[in-house]
Amino acid sequence: MPLVTTKEMFKKAMEGHYAIGAFNVNNMEIIQAIVDAADEEKSPVILQASSGAIKYARINYLMKMIEAATQETNIPIAVHLDHGPDFETCRMCIDSGFTSVMIDGSKYDFEENIAITKKVVEYAHKHGVVVEAELGKLAGIEDDVNVSQEEAMYTDPEQAKEFVERTGCDSLAIAIGTSHGAYKFKGDAKLRFDILERIKKLIPNTPIVLHGASTVIPELVDMCNKYGANIPGAKGVPDEMLHQASIKGVSKINVDTDLRLAMTSQIRKVFSEEPEVFDPRKYLTPAKEEIKKVVQHKIKNVFASSGRI
Question: Out of 36, 82, 104, 258, which one is annotated catalytic?
């Protein structure tokens, strides 16, 4: 099945009160695991690459691997640029076949964010590509994104309405308490669902996106640490909160950290328990299987997008 945009995906998700999982990809194993999981669950899926992933894997390699995935399944797959830092990166991805791009102007003031988002929207829409924008700042570190707790800010609902109307963006990433990376909360996890509900009332037809939404699965963190990692105190967004977010109107939920933990935990386990192993297939196969398991769990039990095709 050819690549699709997120337009129809999000329309159905908003009508059905579920979310589409947007999973970050860096290499073949991750792509295969995500697509195999979504295929088995009969769920639409978004494969997204950050500018860091593009630098690492190279855009032509990523697109050819994703093209191979589309030839093996009939599920709807969208390819999305995650946290596009500037117009040039967005244009490169559009010209290379991405069906969706995000321009992250959240680091700029309101008017400058509007200006750069509008520029990307105009170029993208001419090429049949949809645009995600961001308003509000999420704390945390992930690839090229680095925002301190002091700099983080919630999305203002009234500004969100004005922003969407003036830019024409197709979806909006909002800040309601999630953060990037493995250390999302110091105390109890809390999301501002009141802000989400207010935004949905003001812009009911605009798909809402949640970034920094990995669960930071405790069992995977424990396994990583058991086999030599040093990631103490990592804490993410509980599954129940993410499920609630999807019911309350979030149409796209991003997952990256959980995939990294899944891959790392299995590779570390093999290296520790079988030090004689040096064949990459011997440690990348269990890593791929663990990622698939995580993605299936998210699709079926958290986002509720299973069986939506």
Answer: 82
